[in-house]
Specification:
Keywords: NAD. By secondary structure, the chain is of the alpha/beta class. It has five helices and five strands, in the order E-H-E-E-H-E-H-E-H-H.
Length: 147
């Protein structure tokens, strides 16, 4: 999958690169996601954000217009994303809710979400979509074995 990650801190770069293992085409940006930096998302299917990025209806509309189909937040919280507007736009949203909340664990869960989506699978407990989908979620243990 082609993805751009915004608000990347120096310590996250290597962790995401290692977790990715050159599977996905990742662009890592230190800038926050906003109207001035949205051009980095052109041609990307996935946008990866931090909880410092504010994804209101206006930015989600623009993201959809440039082709973004999925969002992963590198946080458990999703209150920085207008989930209802994302649902209206058919943008899938995932977070990183698992036990290992360390930077390494967050990087691994971020890539696990990409891996599952790339296989057409549900991201399970990481799914934050506000609509029902036809994809049957798998449990976390299966996710780890199949990611």
């Amino acid at each position: 999958m082609k993805a751009v990650a915004y608000n990347i801190k120096n310590f996250e770069k290597e962790l995401l690169a290692r977790a990715n293992g050159k599977v996905h085409d990742l662009t890592l940006i230190s800038n926050a996601l906003n109207f001035n930096t949205l051009h980095y998302a052109l041609g990307k299917e996935v946008v990866i954000v931090s909880e410092d990025d504010r994804l209101d209806a206006a930015i989600l509309d623009k993201m959809k217009a440039v082709g973004v189909q999925k969002i992963v937040t590198r946080s458990v919280a999703t209150d920085h994303i207008d989930l209802f507007r994302a649902a209206d736009l058919n943008i899938q949203v995932a977070n990183t809710p698992y036990e290992d909340g360390s930077p390494k664990g967050i990087a691994e869960q971020t890539i696990r979400n990409l891996n599952l989506w790339d296989k057409g699978r549900c991201v399970g407990a990481a799914c934050c979509c506000m609509k029902d989908c036809n994809v049957v979620p798998i449990d976390h243990k299966d996710e780890e074995r199949n990611a």
